[in-house]
């Protein structure tokens, strides 16, 4: 099976993610275009989550 190559830019700020989600919701994409847009939003969201998690560590969180 061929690997899918996505050329969609990944948002880097929360504002860019919000804008990408709004565009995604009103878009008429399907197939690989739809998947690539979704994946870019997902990757950006996970990256933001990692950044926010590093900023606010929970005291004792590493003891679990």
Give the helix proportion (percent range).
55-70%
Rounded to the nearest angstrom, the radius of gyration is 15 Å
Query: What profile does the largest beta sheet have?
Result: none
Tally of distinct domains = 1
Total number of helices: 2
- What characteristic shape results from the CA principal axes? elongated
- Runs in which pLDDT lies below 50 for 5 or more consecutive residues are none
Separation, N- and C-terminal Cα atoms = 41 Å
- Amount of beta strand: under 5%
E-strand count: 0
Rounded average pLDDT: 84
What does this structure look like?
By secondary structure, this protein is mainly alpha-helical. It contains 2 helices and no strands. It has helices at residues 14-26, 31-55. Helix 1 (14-26) runs antiparallel to helix 2. The longest helix is centred in the last third of the chain and has 25 residues, at 31-55.
Task: Write the topology of this structure.
Layout: H1 14-26, H2 31-55
Quick tags:
64 residues; mainly alpha; 2 helices; 59% helix; 0% strand
């Amino acid at each position: 099976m061929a690997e899918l190559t996505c050329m969609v830019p990944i948002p880097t700020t929360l504002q860019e993610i919000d804008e990408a989600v709004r565009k995604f919701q009103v878009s008429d994409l399907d197939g690989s275009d739809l998947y690539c847009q979704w994946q870019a939003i997902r990757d950006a969201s996970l990256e933001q989550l990692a950044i926010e998690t590093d900023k606010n560590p929970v005291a004792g969180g590493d003891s679990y």
